[in-house]
Automatic annotation (TrEMBL):
The chain crosses the membrane at residues 36-55, 76-96, 102-120. It comes from the Bacteria. This is DMT family protein. Keywords: Membrane, Transmembrane, Transmembrane helix.
Length: 122
């Protein structure tokens, strides 16, 4: 149960972080947002990223073996990276339709998933 909760929290965390890092590129299509200066855009992104911590920190505490969770620190990090890639891919496909996924992207993603397999291999 702690493993599933950890993964769910990591997905939520990465969703907020992806919007914080890349959302401003899409928000630029809104007239009011284009009037903001760089410092204001950074502050908006920072405000979004704050919510990432509300999910990331509990995910790591719940999921970490030393706190009764199922994952080592290395496993948590690799899991987080693959979840980041998954969330980013969905974000890109649905919000940035001008971006194209090619075969080499798919192969790279497969290698990252294989990294998770090898990290979790006992």
């Amino acid at each position: 149960m702690k493993g599933i909760l950890t993964i769910g929290l990591l997905v939520l965390s990465n969703t907020f972080m992806t919007f914080a890092w890349y959302g401003h590129l899409k928000f630029a299509e809104m007239k009011w947002f284009n009037k903001l200066g760089l410092i204001s855009i950074v502050m908006v992104s920072w405000g979004i990223a704050l919510f990432e911590y509300f999910f990331q920190v509990p995910a790591n505490r719940i999921g970490f073996k030393d706190h009764g969770g199922p994952f080592s620190l290395i496993e948590l990090k690799v899991l987080q990276e693959v979840i980041t890639l998954f969330v980013f891919s969905i974000f890109t496909i649905f919000l940035f339709r001008s971006e194209t996924f090619r075969w080499n992207h798919l192969i790279g993603f497969i290698f990252l998933v294989l990294a998770v397999f090898f990290i979790f291999k006992k």
